[in-house]
Specification:
single chain; mainly alpha; DNA polymerase, domain 1; hpI Integrase, Chain A; 2 domains; 13 helices; 54% helix; globular
C-alpha cells in the first residue's frame, strides 16, 4: 500500500463514515502529509503498513524543533487516528504510535470578555452602514447562542424557529442541536433580514443563508475574524479576540450565574462533558457563594 492511496482512503473514511467537517479533514490530512514529506526527504522507503515506532519517533523528534508542545501533541494524536483507521480496515494489527508519549501540556484557559467589554465592542460598531447592522447581529448571535464560527456562517433561515425560541445548529460531524435564542437577538436577526439582507442581490445557492457579504454570498471564516479584529482594535482592546471568544464568554457567563454544566454542554454541542469543564475557571468568591447557596448545611 502506498502512502497517497492510504491517505486518500483515510480522508474518504473521515468524510463518509465519521462525517467530519472539511476543516477537520484538512487538519488530519496535514498531519499525515508531514510524515510523508519527512519520509521522502530522508529517502526512507517504507509503507504505512510496515512503518514502526522507531521511524515515527525519529519523525516526531525532527518536527519537535519547529512545533510547540501543544502542536506536537496535536500531530501525534492525528497520526494515532490514521493508524487506528488502518487497524480498523485490517491493514495493520498494532498502532505504532501507542508507545509514543505526547508532550505534557497544561490545559489552556480560553480568553473571555466581560459583559461590559462586550457592550463596549458592540457600541463601537458603525450602525450608519448596512454592514454595521449585520456585524452587530453577528456579534449578538455568536455571544447569545455560543456558536462556533463555522456554525454561524452556515446558519440557514430555515434553521430559525423563533416561535419556539430556538435555532437549529449543524455542528461538528454534521451533528444537529437546538440552541435557545433570546428575544433581543431574535429582534436583531429579524431586523437584519427585513431591512439589510433584503436589499442584497443574493447569488444562487445562498437564498437560505442568513449572513451574506455585499456580493450576496456566504461570509467566510476569515471575514468574520477580520470583522472582530477590526472592532477590537477600534474599541481599544489589548487582549486577543476571535469569534471563539464570544463562545467562551457565553459559557463562562452562564456558568457564573449558576447554569448547569450539562445544559451548557448541550448548548455548546460538546460530545464530552470534560471539554465543557474547561469553563470551571471561576474565582473563589463565586465558588463560595455556590456552596453558601446550595449546600444543605450552609
Amino acid at each position: 500500500m502506498k502512502w497517497n492511496n492510504a491517505l486518500n482512503d483515510y480522508l474518504i473514511f473521515l468524510k463518509i463514515e465519521k462525517g467530519l467537517s472539511e476543516n477537520s479533514i484538512l487538519s488530519y490530512s496535514r498531519d499525515v502529509k508531514k510524515l510523508i514529506l519527512f519520509l521522502e526527504e530522508n529517502e526512507i522507503d517504507i509503507s504505512p503498513i510496515k512503518i514502526q515506532q522507531e521511524t515515527l519517533q525519529q519523525f516526531i523528534y525532527n518536527v519537535s524543533k519547529k512545533l510547540n508542545p501543544r502542536s506536537q501533541a496535536r500531530l501525534i494524536s492525528g497520526l494515532r487516528n490514521f493508524f487506528d483507521y488502518l487497524i480498523f480496515e485490517d491493514y495493520r494489527k498494532v498502532n505504532p504510535t501507542t508507545l509514543i508519549e505526547s508532550p505534557k501540556i497544561g490545559r489552556k484557559l480560553p480568553d473571555t470578555l466581560s459583559i461590559e467589554e462586550i457592550d463596549i465592542l458592540i457600541n463601537s460598531i458603525d450602525l450608519s452602514k448596512p454592514q454595521g447592522e449585520r456585524n452587530r447581529t453577528i456579534i449578538e448571535t455568536l455571544y447569545s447562542c455560543g456558536l462556533r464560527v463555522s456554525e454561524l456562517i452556515t446558519l440557514k433561515i430555515s434553521d430559525l424557529f423563533f416561535d419556539e425560541g430556538f435555532i437549529r445548529v449543524i455542528g461538528k460531524g454534521n451533528k444537529q442541536r437546538f440552541v435557545p435564542i433570546n428575544t433581543q437577538t431574535e429582534k436583531y436577526i429579524q431586523f437584519y433580514l427585513k431591512n439589510i439582507r433584503n436589499h442584497v442581490e443574493i447569488k444562487k445557492g445562498f437564498e437560505d443563508t442568513v449572513f451574506l457579504n455585499r456580493r450576496g454570498k456566504m461570509l467566510t471564516r476569515v471575514m468574520i475574524f477580520t470583522i472582530i479584529k477590526n472592532l477590537a482594535k477600534k474599541a481599544g482592546f489589548k487582549k486577543n479576540i476571535s469569534p471563539h471568544t464570544f463562545r467562551h464568554s457565553f459559557a463562562t457567563h452562564l456558568l457564573e450565574r449558576g447554569a448547569d454544566l450539562r445544559a451548557i454542554q448541550q448548548m455548546l454541542g460538546h460530545e464530552s462533558i470534560t471539554t465543557t469543564e474547561i469553563y470551571m475557571h471561576l474565582d473563589k468568591t463565586f465558588l463560595k457563594e455556590v456552596v453558601n447557596t446550595y449546600h444543605p448545611r450552609k
